[in-house]
Amino acid sequence: MSIDAQTIVHTILAEDLEVDPGEIADDVSLRTLELDSLAVAELIVRIKEETGIDLEGEETRMADLTVGDIVALAGSGREAA
């Protein structure tokens, strides 16, 4: 059973990082969601655990990425899996 990247990212944000699900939208940046650097690091680790995609190289710009950008990055290797 395969879960899509959007569901994975939204679930991590809502359940693990306690972001209000009503605030999670594709055009909202992590900065707008007020995630600190520890939360961003946790998001990167959880995405890697769930998808196998390593976003560590994106860590410095993660706060400026939108949820949609992160979903696209998280899903970038899942189609081949």
TrEMBL record:
Gene3D superfamilies: ACP-like (1.10.1200.10)
Source species: Streptomyces levis
Domain of life according to the entry: Bacteria
Pfam families found in the cross-reference section: PP-binding
Protein name, entry field: Acyl carrier protein
InterPro entries hit by this protein: ACP-like_sf, PP-bd_ACP
Domain Carrier: 3-78
